[in-house]
Write a structure and sequence with these properties.
By secondary structure, the chain is α/β, with parallel strands linked by helices. The protein has two domains: 182 residues, Rossmann fold (3-Layer(aba) Sandwich); 112 residues, Rossmann fold (3-Layer(aba) Sandwich). Helix content is 41%, strand content 18%. The protein has eleven helices and eleven strands. The strands form two sheets. The chain has a seven-stranded mixed β-sheet, with helices on both faces. The protein has a four-stranded parallel β-sheet with strand order 7-8-6-9, sandwiched between helices. Helix 3 packs across helix 4, helix 5 crosses helix 6 and helix 7 packs across helix 8. The N and C termini lie far apart (61 Å). The model has no long low-confidence stretch (mean pLDDT 96). The protein binds 6-O-phosphono-beta-D-fructofuranose (F6P). 6-O-phosphono-beta-D-fructofuranose binds next to loops.
């Protein structure tokens, strides 16, 4: 690889998230502005291994900032986590003149980037996931759109749940993290919020609260359940049997990952994409772009992957205090 970056590749990897297109657009336009050539790689690392690589120009990213999903498509690629995968990918980068790669995705995608960097490709990660579960950053592109989409859906479920005087269990995404659940739970005034980080499996406590709230005159009971806790459908059956209150489960699923990104996701996605290019222009590599205390910053990938984060305890307490 030459000392100076000449050509940047950009790909999206793992689950898509609204705002990824804003990041791609920023990488392409800032990259071109700095005199780099930019190549788009479709379908993440799988597409890299299949050489699904094309030149991008300013026009390639016109009219995409408002679109959900990712124009580069995305994939999860098991092959990339073998010995051979990253080595072959680095050879492909070399053949296509790609000396640096911007990877938009989550922790898993950064691990792939790290593996690739061992073979001389410069890499920068940009946090793109609805789950908000990347420890080094306070924000991940897609979270705001996802929680707003989920919140609107939950409000609608609450309307009908109230009319029928039911208990509703609404399951939200987040993999093994409860950030979407806590945000939506507080924002919708849920009576119970079940987080993978906190939930001890004490269903009787939920049952008791449903019964108590009924006596107290509440017409509905809303439980926000995180995907990492799961079992919403069977939980609904057990709660109905134990309380006599009709209970329905709704798993919101993939609708949370779609839709036009909010201003926050477009804005922060644009800043983060631009920052990734600036890092490469400054000769930096193996970095992950992050937002800490409202400032753009970056961390070494190893350092970022070693960090841990969890839903803050005080958010959990506040949620409890507010539903009395
Ligand atoms: O990481 C985003 C996410 O939507 C998680 O919340 C969820 O667990 C996962 O992706 C689902 O992935 P897939 O698209 O592979 O089903």
């Amino acid at each position: 690889m030459s000392d100076k970056v000449k050509t940047i590749g950009v790909l999206t990897s793992g689950g898509d998230s609204p705002g990824m297109n804003a990041v791609i657009r920023a990488v392409v336009r800032s990259g071109l502005g700095k005199g780099f050539a930019v190549k788009g790689i479709e379908r993440g690392y799988a597409g890299l291994l299949n050489e699904e690589i094309h030149d991008m120009n300013s026009h390639s990213v016109s009219e995409i900032i408002e679109r959900g999903g990712t124009i580069l498509y995305t994939a999860r690629c098991k092959e990339f986590y073998t010995e051979e995968g990253p080595k072959r990918a680095a050879e492909i980068c070399k053949e296509h003149g790609i000396d640096a790669l911007v990877v938009i995705g989550g922790d898993g995608s950064y691990k792939g980037a790290l593996a690739l960097s061992k073979y001389g490709v410069r890499v920068v990660g940009v946090p793109g996931t609805i789950d908000l579960d990347i420890a080094c950053t306070d924000y991940t592109v897609g979270f705001d759109t996802a929680v707003n989409t989920a919140m609107e859906a939950i409000d609608k479920i609450r309307d009908t749940s109230s009319s029928h005087e039911r208990c509703s269990i609404v399951e939200v995404m987040g993999r093994s993290a409860g950030f979407i659940a806590i945000a939506c739970g507080i924002a919708t005034g849920a009576e119970d919020i079940l987080l993978p980080e906190e939930y001890d499996g004490n269903e009787q406590a939920i049952i008791n609260r449903v019964i108590e709230n009924r006596k107290f005159g509440k017409k509905h009971h809303l439980v926000i359940n995180a995907e990492g806790v799961g079992h919403s459908t069977s939980m609904a059956k057990r709660i109905e049997a134990a309380t006599g209150v009709e209970t329905r489960a709704t798993i919101l699923g993939y609708l949370q990952r779609g839709g036009s990104p909010t201003c926050r996701d477009r804005f922060l996605g644009s800043l983060m994409g631009n920052h990734a290019v600036e890092l490469l222009a400054e000769g930096k590599t193996n970095r992950v772009v992050a937002i800490k205390d409202n400032h753009l910053t970056d961390f070494d990938i190893d350092e970022a992957l070693a960090m841990q984060k969890s839903v803050p305890k005080d958010w959990v307490q506040i949620a409890k205090n507010l539903v009395r």
